[in-house]
Amino acid sequence: MEKKVLMIIAPRDFRDEEYREPKAILEREGLKVVVASTVAGTARGMFGMQATPDTTVDKVNPAEFDAVVVIGGSGSQTHLWNNVHVHKIVKALHQQGRLVAAICISPVVLAKVGLLKGKKTTVFRTPTTINELEKGGALISDAPVVVDGKIITGRGPEAAKEFGRKIADNLLR
Of 82, 1, 74, 85, which Cα lies nearest the Cα of 37? Predict the structure, then answer.
């Protein structure tokens, strides 16, 4: 049976390569990627990339997915960090023992829903992201990509390819 990955992007200012590179890797490996955002319509990356999400986060049934990947970029803080639907999806997949992944500043989403307590993680370092992860009890690493059980975090755009490969490896083993 085909594995399905939900990729969540902000409607504005998602990080282009953090979306493009993992998505290409997952699709090349035969995984079905469904893209969701907080609103319908064309989403725009920080560097001008355009993406048309397949759905909105309020319409997602978490039970349909094997993994969720929360993409970074400055729009994550505005649109994803405190979104109740994004929180519900991430929490549900984690409770079902499925893979949860986030890159750049988006590991903050995982911290805010309580998934990082005692977990080794990485994040794009800013005073705000470090503070949020510390509040969430995360064990912060400076590694480009960190895998702790069913949680994968990536530090930023330079880690996008390795992040995508780790997600694919986890889902295909």
Answer: 85
